[in-house]
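Posting for a labmate who doesn't have an account.
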Amino acid sequence: MAKSPSIFDQQIGLMIWDVERHIAREFALRAATLGIAAGLTPFLRVLETRDGITQQEIANQARMRGSTTAKALNDLERYRLVTRESSKNDGRKNIIWLTREGRDLCRRLQVEAELFNRRLLTGLTQREEKALRRALAKIRDNLT
């Protein structure tokens, strides 16, 4: 007799968490081949779309705590992917800029992300992909 599925197997949050773990693990391996920790990619993504902003703006856009952002920016600076410059308007603030190396890495990460997305969506029709994106956006909106 086949065992019936556990109530936990049907919990959306648990299913998303399990999928996210797999995604995070594989993306970390892909990022490592480019010489970067996957945890730094949200900060690179923010800077790639809006360069020349403050640490607080980066934290807000990446939806990360200030202390997490500070450590990430220190790591990115150590890798020579970002530079800091004192704000002309407020000397207490630093403006963060991507370096040429940082922009190059963003382009390479974008290629990896596109390949990875294709893998994630294998077997889904365009209609299913659109429905998945809408459903995930609604779930995110429900939580924010």
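Reply:
Got it, the structure tokens are right above this. The longest helix spans residues 12-33.
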